[in-house]
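Morning run. Coffee first, then this:
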Amino acid sequence: MMKEKLKEFCKALNIEKVGIAPIGPYNDLYKRLMMRKDNEQLTGFEELDINLRTDPRLTMANVKSIIVCLFPYYVGEKEEANLSKYTYAQDYHMIVRDKLNEIGTYLTNNIANFEYMSFVDTGPLVDRYLAYLASLGYFGINSHLITDDYGSYFFIGYILNNYDFKPDQPMDKTCYQCKTCIKKCPGQIILGNFDIDPRKCRAYITQIKGDLTEDEIEILKKTDMVFGCDICQDVCPHNRGVKHTEIEAFKNDLIYSLKHEDLEGISNKEFMRRYKNRAFSWRGKKTILRNFNYIKGHIDK
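And here it is:
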């Protein structure tokens, strides 16, 4: 059975969590995204065409199934860290894309006329929703997807393809709904209905360009993290005692923190030379240095 062969191959790549999502269209997700749009709860980072986000056939006309894989990245707690955990290793886009292409090549060599398109984070579809449909996890009230083994510390990659893999069934469970994440969220963005209003998300605020508003500065100052925010995950009981990643690329060449004086002393060109293969580098030195300055109180607004 090809599905079992797929899972065995993925296991050889240290990808333990693999499932199959149906090809939609996802009408319930469409309604939720339309509600978010109507309430102006958009950041501008997401795909604006909701049809593209909810109908895979608009991306790949002959799609018959969607392979979804989880890529755990947790390596433990680091006291000195001022970067989000997902950025410690080299840029996950490159690591996950390479793994997905290995899977695609394997299937191309084993299935006649196999075609595929792979995506990690930059595709039009909602990756957490696909992983939920593929029975890889269940939703937390903070809108993160959760697994029993790895909590919510994982990346998601997916492969649209023209082979009719049998879809899996979503899990009939949710998080504990203890609401600790609601209480601890710096921007108070967790709505209590398994959705969020991302406009005051601290992670989002660390990545937007230019000067920040008074409210955004106050949210930013609630932790010392200069890129991202892990609070709703760190306080989640589902993330206690989770397994460390088995993927070597997420365990090596790690950077937990940046220093203000180091950034001040280098050019933009040097910043990119040092950090271009890191997920935190995409907004450039200026935005991260701005975050440092607000947090340290060097900028008065």
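The beta strands are 18-21, 65-72, 116-119, 138-139, 145-146, 154-161. Good start to the day.
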